[in-house]
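=== RUN LOG ===
request id: a7f3
mode: sequence -> structure
chains: 1
length: 93
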Amino acid sequence: MSGKELTQYLDTKFGYTQTPSDDPVNSPAHYNTKGVEAITAIEASMSDEEFQGYCKGNAMKYLWRYKYKGKPVEDLKKAQWYLEKLIASVQNV
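=== RESULT ===
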């Protein structure tokens, strides 16, 4: 099975399709299954403190590796996205 065939199979099997309009920073299609965003499910499964640690860790991860994956601006925007989630969570506590 070629890579394209495998992708098509997985898309069909799990209901995931990525279109050119997908936003890889704010709403990547592969983080949404059956209308549920992964970040929403993750936040619901954690205490406020745990979720803040999760956001902090992810922001640090993207800052750490932004030079090495070939998409530095995208990774910096992802770090910013997690930092904004962290700020919103801290403000709501």
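=== NOTES ===
Strands lie at 32-33, 36-37.
The radius of gyration is 15 Å.
=== END ===
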